[in-house]
């Protein structure tokens, strides 16, 4: 009876959390479309006279372009399509929540009162409300075409060739509603000892996992990625709990296997949306959802 009441309470809290989430824009970036070069993700933009000033997510800097170069109609259409896609994601997430709570209780390790992991192997996130199974995706290596042209133009191995490990799409379909989730890795081969948490860099139509640089015939390729410090605890044989050392900023991330300093391109990606300020308590007000940074409106 107690377990059943806990499940009803957690389910109610989850619905409240999703209602709060639906009231705020989860996306923290916009699209700036230029008439001659397509669209690119930006954190925010503003009109200043006859110029458009914007913060580029690809270059992490403020930049400006003449207003007559900006395709405002394409931006409006892109935003409408993004809003429709995001609504579909939220509807699918609500449906998934209902399916999860309608199923029989998980029979694996108990990670919180009345909350258990599934009994099979996998990588999971727990955001204080739900146990979320992370899905595995495949990254690919693409070459930096601009750097390749420079290498051809300059004789000798003076410049490094460069490529990027990327995941297709700008967002993972798996969303985590907390900036301080716990990750559980359930695997007999000790996978939990080898996973690294990587912050993914947004690109025009993909997410960058790492940058790879090399010189022809000289040394091994250098792999550069942004790893988030983790604390790692073995809580049962074959079961590891991973926590980020600091709260995560809203954005895109992946858990990737590190094999002798090399990242396995088969990884578990997810997005961080926001977070309840405190552990849900049914005797208090509904949990407040922290929002990502808003675009400037001045």
Description:
With 298 residues, the chain is an alpha+beta fold. The chain has one domain (2-272). It is built from 3 helices and 22 strands. A hairpin with a 4-residue loop joins strand 3 and strand 4 (61-66). It is elongated. The relative contact order is 0.16. Mean pLDDT is 75; it is low at 1-26, 144-154 and 276-295.
**Termini gap:** 54 Å
Low-confidence stretches: 1-26, 144-154, 276-295
The major sheet is characterized as: 6 strands, mixed
| String of helices and strands | HEEEEHEEEEEEHEEEEEEEEEEEE
Radius of gyration in whole Å, from Cα?
Answer: 22 Å
Number of E-type strands: 22
**Tally of alpha and pi helices:** 3
In total, how many domains does the architecture comprise? 1
Summarize the SSE layout with pairings.
Layout (H helix, E strand, L loop, with lengths): L1 H21 L7 E5 L3 E11 L2 E6 L4 E6 L5 H31 L7 E3 L2 E2 L5 E5 L4 E3 L2 E3 L1 E4 L1 H9 L7 E8 L6 E2 L5 E5 L8 E5 L1 E2 L3 E10 L2 E7 L2 E2 L1 E7 L2 E6 L6 E9 L2 E11 L26
Parallel strand pairs: 12-22
Antiparallel strand pairs: 1-2, 2-3, 3-4, 5-6, 7-8, 7-13, 9-22, 10-11, 11-16, 13-20, 14-18, 14-21, 15-16, 16-17, 19-20, 21-22
